[in-house]
Amino acid sequence: MKILVINCGSSSLKYQLFDMAGETVLAKGLCERIGVDGVIIHQIPGRDKQTIEYELDNHETAFKKVMELLTGAEHGALGSVGEIDAVGHRVAHGGTIPCSVRIDEQVTRAIADLIPLAPLHNTAALTGIEACRKVLGDAIPMVAVFDTSFHQTMPDRVSTYAIPRALREKYGIRKYGFHGTSHRYVAQIAAAQMGRELESLRIVTCHLGNGSSVTAVKNGKSLDTTMGFTPLDGVVMGTRCGSIDPAIVPFLMEKEGLDTAQIDNLLNKQSGLEALSGVGSDMREIIAAANNGDKNANIAVEELCYQVKKYIGAYMAAMGGLDAIVFTAGIGENGWYIREGILEGMEELGIGIDTQVNRQFSGEPLDISAGDARVRAFVIPTNEELVIARDTKAHVF
């Protein structure tokens, strides 16, 4: 059984082709600069990456080219398009939809209705779904896997904002949470690493990348998470401000004469670690600058570490204890310096790491806990594409 996973951005299209018999990757790649010029990075495992410049006018053109690569004699992994049994699509915002679903017209309308809550992400997802439909037709089933679904188990006391109920209900304003497929996956792997049932554990999962969120996973379910109505809330991120006093928004709009689009752009694309450091949004560059004595870069590093530390403590209290902490995603997996900064000084809470082991991550799940730590700490590579492929398989076959 072969399943193709698609993850569309506004000008990009990521893909992975899985053979679900052994959950192995047959091919993967990324189409970039769609609508500008076009570059495709395509790889068959065990072979060199292929970088191909190709005029990609839109997502349909990009998807057609992907199918040519996947079925081609030189770089292909399929004999024909007919070998694809199903397609799984990552969709950022599913509202209150509690699980992955097979895509039909009703689901497509629901994704479209949520565009105001995630304009870039859901618009891109719909573009990818339509591109697949045009190229593959209706014979191959498709499944939508939502970032928000894992967090639908949050209780009302967590997901409800203290604004007038009429407005909450009219506009669907509540905490939704994101990165759900990542949090779900790494929590499952952590439980397996511990030889325990996920349903018996209290875990804090830290998905730290250009976009970051921290989640309290209690008994296998999301109890709370840092992102809220949108992915702007929570810890400081690459270019997103994270949680700030909401009064800052109308204050800046008035003082700077900003409209809603401009303030949204400022908070989402001109803030965060980039604004704090003055260096950029890449944590590697920020850490290098901090190590060279750049005060602002050091503040950015310390602020991220402090905020994640604070949420770990809060979620530990909310869950009545803690069994494990997991770090994942770009910074979480590769930033040993950040992991040490976050967990430093938490020994009284039973949290400690082996700093030597912490610096030896090589791409496989790694237990970085100190020998006497009550709380286990792990670095676990996320694999959202595999989660999407598994959900696709479960909802089609």
Q: How would you summarize the topology of this molecule?
A:
Blueprint: E1 2-8, E2 13-19, E3 24-32, E4 39-43, E5 50-53, H1 59-71, E6 86-91, E7 101-102, H2 105-113, H3 119-136, E8 142-146, H4 156-159, H5 165-171, H6 180-194, E9 202-207, E10 213-218, E11 221-225, H7 248-256, H8 260-269, H9 272-277, H10 283-291, H11 295-319, E12 324-328, H12 329-334, H13 336-343, H14 355-358, E13 366-367, E14 376-379, H15 384-396
Parallel strand pairs: 1-6, 6-8, 9-12, 12-14
Antiparallel strand pairs: 1-2, 2-3, 3-4, 4-5, 7-8, 9-10, 10-11, 13-14
Helix pairs in contact: 1-3, 10-11, 11-13
Short description:
With 397 residues, this protein is α/β, with parallel strands linked by helices. It has 15 helices and 14 strands.
Can you give keywords for this protein?
about 400 residues, alpha/beta, Nucleotidyltransferase, domain 5, 6-stranded mixed β-sheet, 15 helices, 14 strands
